[in-house]
Amino acid sequence: MSWVVVFLALFALIALFGLVNYWGYRRIEKAQQAWFRQMLGDGVDLETFLQSAPFEYRPLKGSKAYGILDKRTGEEVYRVRTPEEAEAWIVTHTLAERGQLPLASGEPRR
Q1: Could you give the 3-state DSSP secondary structure of residue 77?
Q2: What's the 3-state SS for the chain?
Q3: What stretch of H or E contains 1?
Q4: How far apart are CA 6 and CA 64, in angstroms?
Q5: How many helical (H) and strand (E) elements, i.e. helices and strands, does the chain have?
Q6: What is the pLDDT of residues 55-87, one digit of tens each?
């Protein structure tokens, strides 16, 4: 009988840690989406924006990092650890090149 209690306690702990991890992931995901909406403005799809941007990212061979390439020259211009960081870098630098970075109040520049 005691092994059943131990098993159920361990199962409950594992489930609790999984739930906390999932909630943390969802919180981060929502914050990233809000940041992209703030930077791009309403009605702009991230995937469409990334396709039209002058930069792209690809996984580096033999590494867990991603290289950001300038589509115009084909040169690697920056390296990041995750695809999310690459997308944020591309959005920020593309908007900076276009002179469309949001103002401090959070309103996109038109």
Answers
A1: strand
A2: CHHHHHHHHHHHHHHHHHHHHHHHHHHHHHHHHHHHHHHHCCCCCHHHHHHHCCEEEEECCCCCCEEEEECCCCCEEEEECCHHHHHHHHHHHHHHHHCCCCCCCCCCCC
A3: none
A4: 38
A5: 3, 3
A6: 999 999 998 999 999 999 999 999 999 999 999
Its pTM stands at: 0.74
Q: Which two tokens stand for residue 31?
A: 């914050």
* Residue 17 CB-density burial (10 A; 0-12 exposed, 13-18 middle, 19+ buried): exposed
**Calpha distance 80→68 (Å, rounded):** 8
Q: Are 102 and 76 in contact (CB under 8 A)?
A: no
Q: Decide: 50 and 64 in contact? Cβ < 8 Å.
A: no
